[in-house]
């Protein structure tokens, strides 16, 4: 991203102006970050234009221009909040000290010593102060109107939505990967097919042949691309995705990764490979069980074995994805090493990062989408433990933080299977029960908007509707 210095001289010409060059740059940086993550070139260009106007100094219209750039990405006027919920505003001192502590956190993670990790995170929490657990990006929420479906209707909706993806579905049935898609996409589809299969048997058995062929195609794509060590590659998105394309370019220039046949086949040195490997490994295990396919189960186990050997990294949600994978492998195999590995990753790579507000301390992992990944891992792990008070101590404040956001902003993320797992653990939680209902309604709205059925959510999210809908 370009940096445009905002010259103090212009500010001196308007001494009554409250906006400072530092504030202007920080606000535009936040707007740019959110625009880039939308992968929306038009929004990026609009923020760039404002930045360009102000590169020679602040003008009388600077506040108006910046507010317009913020509005287009959903930030409240004045910056630093979205729908009234705070956005991270660290001081330069916080950023400098956090960077230094980040290296120490990385070293502590590699030691696999939970006490060393906690010593560093305690320092980080002190440095961050009231900024601990405040996300550096949010998504606008909405409040669903309360739609409900029966189990049969939810099953039919999934199948009808799937049929709207005709070309992609046909390609996947043939075992051909989709262009420029991350491996996790195949994982979401396969997990959804595994989730919905029992309801197809009950309500729409005539669709089983088609669904089984799609599951087989997805699994074949995943197993073809799975690397010998058990992990899954990342697509070469240079020139196709703003954020990830630049990341890959930096890693190639630094000699950290290798690209082959359109894929980054080297495991991410920063731990990011745990993401796709976690999602795909869980999908293969779930599908192997649902479709009674030993080959898929073996591929999922290879992924779990790879995850078991990985050191934790400073990105808490990456570690959480490996916890989910190991928990699922333990559920199927009952081999103690997988549960022990998941618990080690919890104690070293997840639990120490919890902030007092119930989110993870750094601004990245405090984002709701990553917070949810961690919550899902806690639910997966607790679900396979006879006694899970250790997990509850982390999961309950984290769940409260999520529900507080939903109360304030409406539904901000897709999280039906995640909330379903947590509801099984905490059935007495009335707020969670209400959120589960609202989440289901939100997904129905997304997939039937304007009276037209579409795949308006990830397949694993939509598939979960049948499991939480009325049993008829």
Order of helices and strands: HHHHEEHHHHHHEHEEHHHHHHHHH
Average pLDDT reading: 92
What is the name of the CATH architecture of the largest domain?
A: Alpha/alpha barrel
**Percent strand:** under 5%
Based on helices, strands and strand pairing, what is the structural class?
mainly alpha
* CATH class bucket of the largest domain: Mainly Alpha
User: Mind describing the biggest β-sheet?
Assistant: 3 strands, antiparallel
Please tell me what the overall shape is.
globular
The end-to-end span amounts to: 53 Å
Number of domains: 3
**How many DSSP H or I helices?**
20
Radius of gyration: 23 Å
User: Within the largest sheet, what's the order of strands?
Assistant: 3-5-4
Report the strand count. Answer: 5
Low-confidence stretches: 1-17
Provide the CATH topology of the largest domain. Answer: Glycosyltransferase
Helix content: 55-70%
What does this structure look like?
- It is built from 20 helices and five strands.
- It is an all-alpha fold and 472 residues long.
- The protein has three domains: 8-81, no CATH class; 96-131, no CATH class; 151-468, Glycosyltransferase (Alpha/alpha barrel).
- Helix 7 (151-163) packs across helix 9 (183-203) and helix 16 (368-383) runs antiparallel to helix 17.
- The relative contact order is 0.11.
């Amino acid at each position: 991203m370009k940096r445009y210095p905002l010259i103090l001289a212009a500010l001196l010409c308007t001494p009554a102006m409250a906006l400072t060059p530092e504030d202007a740059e920080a606000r535009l940086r936040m707007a740019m970050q959110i625009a880039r993550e939308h992968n929306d070139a038009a929004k990026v260009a609009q923020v760039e234009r404002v930045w360009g106007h102000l590169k020679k100094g602040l003008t009388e219209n600077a506040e108006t221009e910046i507010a317009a750039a913020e509005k287009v990405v959903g930030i409240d006027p004045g910056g630093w909040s979205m729908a009234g919920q705070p956005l991270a505003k660290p001081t330069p001192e916080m950023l400098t000290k956090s960077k230094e502590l980040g290296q120490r956190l990385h070293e502590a993670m590699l030691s696999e010593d939970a006490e060393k990790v906690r010593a560093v995170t305690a320092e980080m929490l002190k440095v961050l102060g009231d900024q601990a657990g405040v996300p550096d990006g949010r998504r606008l929420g909405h409040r669903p109107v309360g739609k409900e479906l029966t189990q049969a209707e939810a099953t039919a909706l999934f199948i009808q939505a799937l049929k709207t993806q005709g070309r992609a579905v046909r390609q996947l049935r043939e075992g051909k990967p989709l262009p420029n898609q991350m491996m996790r996409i195949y994982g979401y589809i396969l997990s959804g097919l595994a989730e919905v299969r029992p309801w197809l048997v009950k309500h729409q058995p005539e669709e089983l042949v088609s669904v089984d062929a799609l599951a087989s195609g997805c699994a074949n794509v995943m197993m073809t691309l799975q690397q010998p060590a058990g992990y899954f590659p990342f697509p070469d998105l240079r020139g196709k995705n703003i954020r990830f394309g630049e990341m890959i370019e930096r890693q190639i220039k630094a000699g950290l990764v290798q690209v082959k046949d359109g894929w980054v086949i080297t495991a991410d040195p920063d731990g990011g490979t745990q993401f796709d490997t976690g999602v795909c490994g869980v999908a293969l295990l779930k599908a192997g069980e649902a479709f009674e396919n030993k080959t898929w189960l073996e591929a999922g186990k290879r992924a779990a074995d790879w995850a078991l050997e990985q050191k934790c990294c400073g990105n808490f949600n990456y570690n959480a994805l490996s916890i989910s994978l190991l928990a699922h492998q333990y559920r199927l195999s009952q081999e103690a090493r997988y549960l022990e590995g998941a618990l080690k990753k919890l104690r070293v790579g997840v639990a120490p990062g919890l902030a007092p507000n119930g989110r993870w301390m750094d601004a990245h992992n405090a984002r709701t989408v990553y917070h949810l990944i961690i919550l899902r891992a806690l639910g997966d792990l607790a679900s396979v433990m006879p006694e899970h008070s250790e997990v509850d101590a982390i999961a309950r404040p984290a769940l409260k933080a999520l529900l507080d956001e939903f109360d304030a902003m409406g539904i901000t993320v897709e999280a039906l299977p995640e909330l379903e797992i947590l509801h099984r653990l905490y059935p007495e939680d009335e707020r969670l029960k209400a959120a589960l209902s609202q989440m289901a309604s939100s997904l129905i709205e997304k997939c039937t908007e304007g009276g037209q059925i579409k795949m308006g959510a990830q397949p694993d999210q939509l598939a979960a509707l049948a499991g939480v809908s009325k049993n008829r």
